[in-house]
Design a protein that fits this description.
Blueprint (H helix, E strand, L loop, with lengths): L25 E2 L5 E3 L2 E3 L8 E2 L10 E8 L6 E11 L8 H17 L4 E13 L2 E12 L4 E10 L6 E11 L9 H10 L1 E2 L6 H16 L3 H19 L3 H5 L4 H13 L3 H29 L4
Antiparallel strand pairs: 1-2, 2-3, 3-11, 4-5, 5-6, 6-10, 7-8, 8-9, 9-10
Helix pairs in contact: 3-4, 6-7
Length: 299
């Protein structure tokens, strides 16, 4: 990530750009902001400012605060969510998941100009009912700053390829850590919630592969059935009929694709597709429940 001078000093692992904040974030009465696939509560305490990002930024949301407001020796704190993608990490055993999340964290951090991971401690934990990697990381900046980062790296439970990094960091030249802000930042870390969303592009890709395989096996009836459900789903979305869209269940189609892959001797893909089927079923059920709750329709 590129650090730039703005009206105030750039903060830990956060880029400040002179662009409008994410207009798609919707705030509830309790201050919770809902974005695509997750929602957050702003950190507690006074002095935290919403960070303004480029629309194309990998940071959908973030807040920053001065610990020491000094132009030559600033000490700043930040909480944020960072998004990256790795479709492989959601569907394997915990050893592979843990190793993949660790590599993803190092790769994403080192890819930012002037940033180098100095030390990293990690452990696999349960966070928000999901298996995630908790980490404590020290990053050296080419500008002479030391950045301490604490947080979680999680595969999104409803959007399989998406990896969310939820973090709290402090940045200073001395490498100091101000524990007085820990409680304020914890409000943000505890307030992140994963939310269901519409069918992701990867699920659509799998279903199209299934249709192709069915046609290759001359099972046009089943292929037309899957294709018809996908078209029906798209029509509901175009009409913004979310109850109708959430009512289209592709779980059995995905399970059928997994069974067909098993017949073809592809066990790795079988495990992946079956896990996606389970995740999709949870996603659709959650979507329908939330939609009915918000509209007052019977559940």
């Amino acid at each position: 990530m590129t650090h730039r001078r703005t009206t105030w000093i750039a903060v830990a692992l956060v880029c400040l750009f002179p662009f409008a904040a994410d207009a798609k974030a919707q705030a509830s009465n309790d201050g919770r902001l809902t974005l695509k696939g997750f929602s957050v509560i702003p950190p507690g305490g006074k002095g935290w400012q919403r960070v303004i990002y480029k629309p194309s930024s990998k940071f959908p949301i973030g807040y920053a605060k001065f610990v020491v407001k000094d132009r030559t020796n600033p000490h700043t704190a930040a909480v944020q969510v960072e998004v990256s993608f790795d479709r492989r990490l959601r569907y394997y055993d915990e050893t592979v998941l843990f190793d993949g999340l660790r590599k993803n964290l190092i790769r994403v951090t080192n890819s930012d100009p002037g940033m180098t991971v100095h030390s990293l401690e990690t452990e696999l934990v349960t966070y928000k009912a999901n298996r995630c990697m908790r980490f404590i990381m020290v990053v050296n900046s080419s500008r002479g700053f030391t950045i301490h980062v604490r947080g979680y790296k999680c595969p999104h439970p409803f959007i399989p390829p998406q990896i969310l990094e939820i973090s709290y960091s402090q940045r200073s030249r001395s490498g100091a850590w101000n524990a007085d802000l820990d409680g304020e930042a914890q409000v943000f870390l505890d307030g992140v919630e994963f939310t269901p969303t519409v069918m992701g592009p990867y699920v659509g890709e799998l279903l199209r592969n299934f249709i192709q395989l069915l046609r290759q096996r001359r099972n046009s009836v089943a292929a037309n059935l899957v294709e018809g459900d996908m078209n029906r789903y798209d029509r509901f979305l175009k009409r913004k009929d979310m109850a109708g869209a959430f009512g289209v269940d592709f779980t059995d189609h995905l399970k059928g694709y997994a069974n067909m892959l098993e017949e073809h001797g592809r066990p790795g893909h079988v495990t992946e597709v079956r896990l996606i089927a389970k995740t999709f079923q949870t996603n659709q059920t959650g979507n329908l429940r939330l939609h009915n709750k918000s509209t007052g329709r019977p559940r």
